[in-house]
Amino acid sequence: EKQQQFYWPGWQTNLALYILLCGITGLAGYFGAKRKTTSLGFSFFCDQHVPVHYVSYFITRIIYLVLYEIFFRGLFLYACLALVDVKLAIAINIFVYSIAHWYSNRQEVIGSLPFGLILCLLTVWYDSVWPAVVLHLSLALSHDLTLVMIKEKIIASPFNSLLKSKT
Fold first, then answer.
1. 113 vs 136: CA distance, rounded Å
2. Distance separating alpha carbons of residues 55 and 109, to the nearest angstrom
3. pTM, entire model
4. 145, 154 in Cβ contact below 8 A?
């Protein structure tokens, strides 16, 4: 008699890998925010320590990112896929996506290239924009939440300790 082995069906393996990818992306957002506060002294934009400002910011940020991904990976990528092959559609999408990040610093522009590729591949692989939405949210929200926690002194930042030593 053949002994049953523990295994995950394909969709569970894909889901586990996707969750791992979201976790890695969340950590990238966290460490990116910590590095930003260290190198630039950047703090979260809101000067007032009022929870309603943070709540309204995060609600707006979530809505913005969902619509942003629906445009880039939903409408724009699928429109390109209707006209050209998948490789060229992804290349066009990544190019335009990186241009949309030119307002930011050089690291974000460079980071948008592999991140855009991952978002496009997820969209094509799952034939859905939602995996890209969730992955982008995991990066952006972990980054922004880290900045809020540093500003509110919930977590420490090397920059915070430098400020304390100078005062």
1. 13
2. 28
3. 0.75
4. no
